[in-house]
């Protein structure tokens, strides 16, 4: 009987097109890890569910968790779309599937956010949240507009821009000769660094942000690096290039564990870096090898701790979880009161309760909205122009 090792070696010797799996379960599991980083950031850094010295320590540990998780999603999006794309796919079908993936969850959580804001007597005008309705809020250099409605949906504003660009970007990147793919990847990495430095030294730092720890920068600087869709497009392009490197056999394997260690080192480096250098594309570069290695492990059938049914299920719920968790946390904090404190074990239990409630609501949103709508819009359209 053929051993697992022999099977992996045989698969590795085959052309990649012949061993490209439809599912990338390890990457699906990693999606939940990224979403969990965002949850931890909002729980301990923004909502301060744990107070005192322990709370300060937790807040410092997850200080860049939100930006790291979002950056991971942006690279992953470019990678997965390129990996799963098949020549001849109608552009109309592609865009229909992408919009069907993000808009239903977005609209449901936006309605919920506006309803909760109204019950809390929040001062939110129509002009504040209206750009969010069409996922256009990240194009506004205004902190009120970018965070209006369901604040986490700003990243979907970027994703929508990526999806619209993908039919144009993929044919261009496919024309890059395989021998030049690493050069193109290095150029994108360099542009991420240039962007971060330009935001820090060329964009005005006035007026300063009125938040502790952010007084040395303006929202314009943060917006250029973090929210502006063309800036974040660099990470999406990085994901496309990574997929091309793997598909053309140009990716140099380092193994899952070293790639994971590199991502952890990158998180530590970004945490110690100045804000404008420690968020956005420059910080996201550290997770790129992990994405490529995880996909390669799935292709070869290599052992993976994140390929089990539980991790796969959590990964499937990750988008819905991402969309509901902030609403749960803000409502929980409002119910507790700004001055609420308790012994650390109790505060941690409250954080776990918030996680459990978020996952439960994510399951409802996934089963009632995301999965049925995604299945419906995935049906093939009649005629449309091909992507390539």
UniProtKB/TrEMBL annotation:
GO molecular function: acyltransferase activity
Domain of life: Bacteria
Transmembrane domains' residue ranges: 28-45, 65-85, 106-124, 152-173, 180-203, 223-243, 250-269, 275-298, 310-328, 348-366
Acyltransferase domain segment(s): 27-365
Keywords of the record: Acyltransferase, Membrane, Transferase, Transmembrane, Transmembrane helix
One protein family per Pfam: Acyl_transf_3
Signal sequence coordinates: none
Record-linked InterPro entries: Acyl_transf_3_dom, Acyltransferase_3
Name listed for the protein in its UniProt record: Acyltransferase
């Amino acid at each position: 009987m053929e051993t697992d090792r022999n099977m992996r070696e045989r698969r590795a010797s085959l052309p990649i097109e012949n061993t490209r799996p439809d599912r990338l379960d390890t990457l699906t599991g990693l999606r939940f890890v990224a979403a969990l980083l965002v949850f931890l950031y909002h729980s301990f850094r923004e909502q301060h569910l744990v107070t005192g010295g322990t709370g300060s320590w937790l807040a410092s540990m997850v200080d860049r968790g939100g930006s790291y998780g979002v950056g991971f999603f942006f690279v992953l999006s470019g990678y997965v779309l390129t990996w799963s794309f098949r020549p001849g796919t109608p552009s109309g079908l592609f865009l229909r599937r992408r919009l069907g993936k993000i808009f239903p969850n977005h609209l449901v959580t936006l309605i919920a956010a506006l309803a909760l804001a109204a019950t809390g007597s929040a001062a939110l005008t129509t002009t504040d949240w209206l750009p969010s309705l069409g996922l256009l809020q990240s194009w506004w250099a205004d902190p009120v507009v970018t965070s209006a409605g369901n604040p986490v949906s700003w990243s979907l504003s970027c994703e929508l821009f990526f999806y619209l660009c993908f039919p144009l970007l993929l044919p261009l990147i496919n024309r890059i000769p395989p021998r030049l793919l690493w050069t193109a990847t290095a150029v994108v990495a360099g542009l991420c660094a240039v962007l971060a430095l330009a935001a820090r030294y060329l964009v005005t730092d006035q007026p300063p942000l009125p938040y502790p720890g952010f007084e040395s920068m303006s929202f314009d600087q943060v917006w250029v690096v973090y929210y502006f869709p063309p800036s974040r497009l660099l990470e999406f392009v990085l994901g496309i290039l990574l997929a091309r490197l793997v598909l053309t056999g140009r990716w140099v394997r380092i193994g899952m564990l070293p790639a994971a260690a590199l991502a952890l080192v990158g998180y530590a480096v970004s945490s110690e870096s100045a804000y404008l250098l420690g968020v956005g594309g420059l910080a996201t570069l550290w997770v790129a090898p992990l994405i490529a290695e995880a996909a390669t492990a799935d292709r070869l059938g290599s052992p993976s701790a994140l390929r089990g049914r539980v991790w796969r299920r959590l990964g499937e719920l990750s988008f819905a979880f991402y969309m509901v968790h902030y609403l749960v946390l803000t409502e929980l904090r409002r119910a507790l009161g700004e001055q609420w404190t308790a012994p650390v074990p109790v505060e941690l239990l409250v954080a776990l309760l918030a996680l459990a409630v978020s996952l439960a609501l994510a399951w409802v949103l996934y089963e009632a909205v995301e999965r049925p709508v995604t299945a419906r819009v995935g049906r093939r359209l009649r005629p449309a122009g091909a992507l390539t």
